[in-house]
Design brief:
152 residues, two-stranded antiparallel sheet, 6 helices, globular
């Protein structure tokens, strides 16, 4: 079964509506992140795409990521609770909730506006070239997982 398409306005708007129900007091149903840390964590996926903030993995690490991690990230299969996360995605500080929320909403809107054709064959930070479907699965699955973590 195909995941909802983040490149459509309807799906992007539904994700944004879910984000807008979060408050600084929202509590996780599992895991250790605060809601602000979760939003910052979700922003990392988009920072990889839109910002030059993180060093790219070396050739050996990219091989490992493509071989062992890529399928988990870009498939339609949901993430398990309390799974492993990459070092860039670990948020140690307590970010400002509203700033992180607004950044995430902006990234979702930008991704939807650029559309699937922009992402078809686009190189990812860690996994090489991806299809638009793989990008969609990565974006949607990650957001859905963490929004579900906070009950929205």
């Amino acid at each position: 079964m195909a995941l909802p398409n983040v490149f459509t306005k309807e799906v992007a708007d539904s994700l944004i509506a879910r984000i807008n129900t979060l408050t600084p007091e929202s509590k996780a149903q599992w895991g250790k992140m605060s809601v602000a840390q979760m939003l910052a964590h979700c922003n990392v996926t988009y920072e990889y795409v839109y910002e030059d903030k993180y060093a790219k993995p070396n050739a050996f690490m990219r091989f490992i990521l493509k071989t062992l991690v890529k399928k988990t990230v870009v498939s339609e299969d949901p993430y398990k609770h309390n799974g492993n996360t990459g070092p860039d995605f670990i948020i140690k500080n307590e970010p400002e909730f509203t700033a992180q929320k607004n950044r995430l909403i902006g990234f979702i809107a930008k991704t939807q506006e650029l559309g699937a054709s922009h992402f078809e064959g686009k190189e990812s930070h860690s996994f090489g070239m991806l299809t638009a479907t793989e990008w969609n699965n990565m974006f949607y699955k990650h957001l859905n997982h963490h929004l579900g973590q906070f009950g929205v």
